[in-house]
Amino acid sequence: MEARIDKWLWAARIFKTRSIAADACKNGRVTINGVNVKPSRPLKEGEIVDVRKPPVTYSFRVRKCIEQRVGAKLLPEIYENVTDPKQYEILEMSRISGFVDRARGTGRPTKKDRRQMDAFVDPTLFGFDFDDDDM
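^ that's the sequence the OP posted. Answer follows.
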């Protein structure tokens, strides 16, 4: 059995919408067995699909080709996650770094981010009160 890669990515809940899955294919963020694919490429059981969602590249082994969305509990029947554990370490490091390493174009910092940056820069927010006479 075969399925279109964009439909499979959507049905397997890897992308929220089919159009986002198709855009990922067009922009070279989806590969099958190491080869960039178009959204209409047929997918077969047993193939390895790599999906790049910066900063991580996820890898999935296709167990079942589907084009209709299924419940989250049925996902282990659809694919096997074969992502390298190092990718998850990269993801954890990016979560820890937080606002320090903001991606370009993500917009202005939120109020919470702003407070964290101010606390990092301004030591008086930590309770250290410096007077001009002390220096």
